[in-house]
Specification:
Length: 195
């Protein structure tokens, strides 16, 4: 709708106030998908800051409170939003999931699904660089596995950092099946670069 052009004219604090007024963080999920489709039609595109605020308002609370797989409406909204604004989404929502202590099984599965199906290659690399900035954990191993599952070659500096991280923390994962699968995938995909 033409009224949504106001999103391009708001300051960050105005946009946060507008999201709060419209109660976007708790709007019904079927509406959420429709709203995200409207965002894709906006011209010009949202600024990075505006997209980051909307990612936080629309998705952060929903994703962090998942206790079962996301609904098809939520997945459709996420896919729609990430098709144009995946970088701010990764900086806000994915970063929060990765930094959350504990298992967060549904959140981790969701990030894996987004990595496998929705994110652009440069955003997959962004997620990997976020993962490599923190201590590796059982929770993060499936995320790295999902990235490698895309069969896209990593830039050399990221690959070196990943190999170094896996080597340094090998003893902590001596009995981990996920770690073993990850190392096997690495050796298969990057035979010539990994000695």
């Amino acid at each position: 709708p033409p009224k949504l052009c106001i999103l391009n004219n708001c300051s960050p604090s105005q946009l946060e106030g507008l999201c709060s007024f419209l109660q976007l963080s708790v709007c019904p999920e079927p509406f959420l998908g429709r709203f995200c489709r409207w965002l894709l039609a906006l011209t010009p595109d949202l600024s990075y800051t505006s997209a980051a605020i909307l990612a936080e308002q629309l998705f952060l609370r929903r994703v962090m409170s998942l206790t079962q797989p996301p609904s098809r409406h939520l997945m459709a909204a996420l896919a729609s939003f990430c098709s144009k604004y995946s970088q701010p989404f990764c900086h806000v929502v994915v970063a929060a999931v990765l930094q959350e202590p504990g298992e967060g099984a549904e959140q981790t599965k969701l990030v894996c699904e987004l990595v496998e199906e929705c994110l652009e290659p440069h955003c997959v690399q962004l997620v990997l660089s976020q993962v490599l900035k923190m201590p590796l954990s059982e929770k993060l191993l499936p995320v790295v596995q999902a990235m490698l599952g895309r069969q896209e070659m990593l830039p050399l500096e990221l690959l070196d950092l990943l190999v170094l991280t896996l080597c340094r923390q090998a003893s902590a994962f001596a009995t981990s099946l996920d770690y073993a699968k990850l190392v096997t995938t690495m050796l298969t995909m990057y035979q010539s670069q990994v000695s």
